[in-house]
Design goal:
NUDIX_hydrolase-like_dom_sf; Nucleoside Triphosphate Pyrophosphohydrolase; NUDIX_hydrolase_dom; alpha+beta; Nudix hydrolase domain-containing protein; 7 strands; 26% helix
Amino acid sequence: MAPCAALERCWAGAMDGARQCLALCFGGGGHGDEQGALLGQDGKLGKYGEAQGAKPSGAEAGAADEERDKVVKAFVIAHHDTLGYLVLKAFKNRKGIHGQLPGGNLDFDDASPAFGAAREVFEETGIDLRANLARLRLAVFPDGTTQLKGRQFFRLTLTDADAVGDRAPDSGEDFRLNLSDEHVGFVFEKDAENLALMIDQHSGGKCSRAVRALECV
């Protein structure tokens, strides 16, 4: 069975046995970030970072690492107390159908990473947090840092009032969103480790690493 078909079966079953299915689809090999740690999908740069060339060696490595850690992307770990974690579904030719967190590249005119995260959430789901950024809580990693390779993560507690659209989740819950054209569906997943597996191909695997560090404790 082709990986894409196997993964479709996984989504259709509301992610029952997500570990086994995703191991079948994605087993072996790592997932590189297609555009690099600092470049967006369109190859443009945000005001929070600069493009990097090949990683320098020796004395220049520390300065390059610091530059590369500037925030250029923001993602949201959205969780509903009853339904679980929100997982967006996207399709790309090289990846097939895969899970994503809401979020993405910061724009030049984003006032802050939190505002950029809110803008992305609105564009991708219809949930509007732009006038209520306090709902987005900056995630702090166990080592005290607040970013991972140029990415910041925010926690959002979803409520029933956030169900603002006409698209129902593929997992069957009564919670509707207005999905962007770049997404083909969404599901809710209650287990954080399964969430990490589902988004393993998103943003070069960095979102999966963040979920494991922040939620799987």
